Amino acid sequence: MTIAIGDKLPEATFKETTADGMTEVQSGDLFGGKKVVVFAVPGAFTPTCHLNHLPGYLENRDAILAKGVDEIAVISVNDAFVMAAWEKATNGTGKLRYLSDWDASFTKAIGMEMDLSAGTLGVRSKRYSMIVEDGKVTALNIEDSPGEAVTSGASALLDQL
Predict the structure, then answer these.
(1) Exposed e or buried b per residue across 27-64, where buried means at least 16 C-beta atoms within 10 angstroms of its C-beta
(2) Does the annotation mark 52 as catalytic?
């Protein structure tokens, strides 16, 4: 079942690479008592994700945070090393949290998985964005096509804050 507005996010463990090395990020620590903007992409460095979806969040970061958001996180079913390389390649260090859902456990738990094996990507996340307040989904935007980043884009989300 797909997560819906009003639902509480499940417990999950993400991987994140920091200056201190690879760390685990618990969903309770990430979302508890905070207002967090989350967007997910089918894959780091893939064309729509790299050239369209992520750049909008980097460009609108300050405007999003000015609306009372504590953090902005991007989640992808990629390993933490790929996410760290993407963070560096996009100059996103210190601006967004680049979180690895390496085994797709969070993605599957919220019903956002899709099989992109035909495109050689395997199981990945649907493209979406959401606003999470103290672990509860208060806005959710799911793209109909993985090649589009309009409904889940930063400007659409900014209008919801």
Answers:
(1) beebbeeebbbbbbbbbbbbebbbeebbbbbeebbeeb
(2) no
